[in-house]
Every structure is written in structure tokens, then in C-alpha cells.
Amino acid sequence: MSNFDGCQLPCVPKFSIGSAEVGGQSPIRRIKRLLAVPWNYYGKKWLKKAYYLSVRWQGTSPQQMKAKDLAPEIPFVTGDLVKVRSHEEIQSTLDPFKELKGCAFLPEMTQFCGTQQRVLKSMQVFLDERDYKVKKVRGVILLENVICNGTPAFGPCDRCCFLFWREEWLEKISG
User: Fold this and answer.
1) Phi, psi values for residue 103, rounded to 5°
2) How many domains does the chain have?
3) Is the Cβ–Cβ distance between 66 and 93 less than 8 Å?
4) Which one-letter DSSP state was computed for residue 4?
5) Residue 114, domain CATH
6) Distance CA 86, CA 112 (A)
7) Structural domain range at position 107
8) Which pLDDT tens digit goes with each residue over 113-159?
9) pLDDT tens for residues 16-49?
10) How far, in Å, CA of 140 to CA of 22, rounded?
């Protein structure tokens, strides 16, 4: 895909004025940041392949069974009022990589557990900024005003990206 008319992402390197310094980090934190890209793109990739291959040989995992039990019968739509499940319920659906069907549950998302939120959108496609490809998704929900403000590893961020929520982590509130 080479035609990005109407999208600002390819312009980011041109209008940024350099990397932001993240001061006051321990040597271990700096090493984690340095190794994040090689670990996530290479090491973790092979570990995940091995893990999921072993799961296929063993049959359905307890996490997959729990996630199936929590899946909504009726899909979420814009405006639905939902309750974010408890941290314990969400944890019970995660694989050893803290993911459900490839969607990571970040430590920053814990603050929203048990709260009521409104569905902004049920996602169908999104632009993956790592490779500039539009990708299809199913069962991923965006919630109104539930955004990422940065991570402990990389520090604060002013971008305000929406956090991705698996539908299994949400419970529709009748109303």
C-alpha cells in the first residue's frame, strides 16, 4: 500500500523534532527499553509459536474455555453500556503472554476493571502503524474516553490512543 492520502502516519518522521528523553530511569529500565523491539519482534514471536503449537497438541486450554464462556451472545454496538470485568476474570482468559486471541491486556488497563463504560465502536479494521498495513479484526472493542497515556517502560505519551478491549472482557449492562 503506497497511497496514504488522508493519513498523517507517514508524515510523523518528518514533523517530529527528535526523540524525547525519558529521565530518571534505572539501568534495568533502560535495558528493558533497549531490548523491547528485538524481544517483541523476534524472541517472543518464536516463543509464542512454540506455545500455541503445544496447545494445539494438547487440545483446548483452560484459558480458551473460560474465554468462550465469557463471549457475548449478541455483539456489542456503538452506545452500549458495558461493565469491564474484574481483573481476576480477565486474568483467567489470558495466555502466558498476557493476551487473549493476540490482544494484550496491559497493566495500565487494570484501573478500568469493574467500571462502567460506553462502547465507542466495535472494530472491523485498523491501521497497524508498525508496518502500515490495514488489518482485519473481530471481537475488538473501543470504549469512549478509555485511552492510553503511556507505559511504565516508555513513559508518558500525549498521543491518547484508544485501548483495545476483547469483547470477552466486557459485560453488557441491560438498560
Assistant:
1) -95, 120
2) 1
3) yes
4) -
5) 2.30.30
6) 9
7) 60-172
8) 999 999 999 999 998 887 788 899 999 999 999 999 887 767 788 88
9) 777 777 667 788 877 877 887 787 778 888 888 8
10) 31
